[in-house]
Amino acid sequence: MVVILPEVSRTLNEYLLVPNLTTEECTPDNVDLSTPIVRYPVGGESPLRIAVPLVSAIMQAVSSPRLAIALAQTGGLSFIHQNQGIAEQAESVSAVKRHKAGFRHSDINTKPSATLGEVSRLLRAAERDIAVVTEDGSAGGRFVGLISTADFHPHRHDLNDTVESRMRPAAGLVTAPPTISLSDANTLIWDHRLDLLPIVTDNGHLASIVLRRDYELHKQFRNESIDDDKRFRVGAGVNTRDYRDRIPALVEAGADVLCIDSSDGYSVWQRNTLQYAVGELGGAVPVGAGNVVDGRGFRYLAEAGAAFVKVGIGGGSICITRDQKGIGRGQASALIDVVAERDRYAQETGVYVPVCCDGGLLADYHMAIALALGADFIMLGRYFARFDESPSNLVNLDGQLYKEYWGEGSQRARNVARYDQGETEMPFEEGVDGYVPYAGSLYPNIARTVSKLRATMVSCGAVTVPAFHRDAVLVQVSQQSYEQNGAEVRLRSGSGGSGQ
Questions:
Q1: DSSP letter, residue 399
Q2: Is residue 31 within 8 Å of 454, Cβ to Cβ?
Q3: Of residues 231, 233, 246, 418, which has the active-site annotation?
Q4: What is the mean pLDDT of the chain?
């Protein structure tokens, strides 16, 4: 007989936070947003934590190596998408792991024989203003110089001329050996007014580079997501079809954490994938699972060994699973149910399995609502797709700048491994293809969002995420409240808005 839950399915938009007492210790500077990513013993410490509770979605339009590096710099974590070949995904993971905090793998390189036109296009495509010149144009080739947009002008110089004709030769540049400390490297940058410091081996080959911009970012964000070797952390998505080949390749590439990417995670296929990762591979890397919308799904995946569990079906801005299949649950209702089961599981077993809120977040304050309801961290697609660092194209539509954005269930992505429709092809869509308003660089946007989260927690009398879970007070919002809050006011240009 059919079971009908005695509830109305609620979204994050249907709740507001009620302020608690703000004490003297409740200041934005004292708020600690750090959070666990993977399971750990109750009373212990998670082996993987991030300073900012934001991770990027496992999507083609979102999680590229460039975005992963930027998000790790700001304290979050990115999951490289799995809708690509195993070798390509593993290389994307390796590309992130080649970057150490402060010491970057050089990814904008050219050779002396290249033309100014070629380097101009390279810099424009990468949205950079300086390239490293090596003998063979590789990141580890013999270092011969630097060339930047300050060294030539496309309307003054012949673009058929060689890079060698306008580059600054290595002999006249400040360089440093691989043994230099990051502190000393930054001193050289400031003493010599450098934007880029090449790190060069004894035999003259490029080892890495240090950027002035990274120093400034470190001072702003301070808590990069790095491993014990100071390499940026990165996650990756896997599926339940080729996991026996994909997971070992991603482990070899250096992935810090994996996540099974599926629209519906309450399945024996996810259990089998987790048992392989935990059993046959001996837990070489933690693997999260999902998505689920109730306590049954959470318990099933937690017992199978999931490192964390993702919550949400059909709530994403680009997802139409609810329209196509009639499956899902309001994100707030799903979180409330799953979080209650997480806490029961922790009490019964002594193991805490973090919960990730994935989808249903249309405004920055929805992130605070999700955390208050018990989410440990938040996965975002649309939010990150808007930024320079996402891999999608920037387009101009009627004078307004947008970034392309498409769902993994769209015909454009055709992510068969994510959506079990019983076919080798997708007979129907569970996502759409569109555009999101362009929002500039990730860095100032993350800083703004973090400021909002800290301010909200201060008003709620909490300075840590666990305290926010414990002490937050929420109230449902009526339609009349919406109407009163939406009284018409003509806004000046640039005022208001959620940033999303």
A1: T
A2: yes
A3: 418
A4: 89
C-alpha 354/C-alpha 306 separation (Å) is 9
* Residues 412, 349 within the same domain: yes
Q: Angle 212-221/442-459 helices, nearest 10 degrees?
A: 10
Residues 238 and 325 grouped into a single domain: yes
Q: What are phi and psi of 310, to 5 degrees?
A: -90, 140
Which of 224, 285, 282, 231 has the alpha carbon at shortest distance from 257? 285
Structure-block tokens of residue 468:
């926010």
For residue 291, cis peptide bond before it (omega within 30 degrees of 0): yes
| Residue 489: band (very low, low, confident or very high) from pLDDT cuts 50, 70, 90 | low
Bridge partners, residue 434, by sequence: 405
Averaged pLDDT, 347-369: 95
Tokens of 445: 């946007």
What is the token pair recorded at 463?
A: 């300075």
Give me the long-range contacts of 452-456 (CB less than 8 A, separation at least 24).
452/364, 452/365, 452/368, 452/499, 453/31, 453/33, 453/364, 453/367, 453/368, 453/371, 454/28, 454/31, 454/33, 455/28, 456/17, 456/365, 456/368
Question: Are the C-beta atoms of 357 and 330 separated by less than 8 Å?
Answer: no
Amino acid (1-letter code) at residue 404: E
Number of compact structural domains in the chain: 2
Residues β-bridged to residue 387: 440
Binding residues for NAD(+), by number, are 261-263, 312-314
Point out the annotated binding site: 261-263, 312-314, 316, 319
End-to-end Cα distance, the chain? 43
pTM for the predicted model, two decimal places:
0.84
**β-pair type (355-358, 49-50):** unpaired
Q: In this structure, what CATH number is given to the domain that contains residue 167?
A: 3.10.580.10
Catalytic residue among 26, 319, 356, 357: 319
How many other C-beta atoms are found inside a 10 Å radius of the C-beta of residue 188?
15
Secondary structure (DSSP) of 412-470: TT--TTTS--SSSS-SS-SB-EEEEE--B-HHHHHHHHHHHHHHHHHHTT-SBHHHHHH
142: domain range? 109-211
- Helix 364-372 and helix 442-459, axial crossing angle in degrees, nearest 10: 50
Is 319 catalytic? The answer is: yes
| pLDDT, greater one: 264 or 55 | 55
Distance CA 61, CA 389 (A): 10
> Would you state the structure tokens that stand for residue 311, as one six-digit string?
């919550």
What average pLDDT score do residues 271-297 get? 93
Helix (H) or strand (E) holding 115: none
Residues of each annotated binding site for K(+): 314, 316, 319
Closest by CA position to 152, among listed 104, 105, 193, 110:
110
Which domain CATH number covers 287? 3.20.20.70
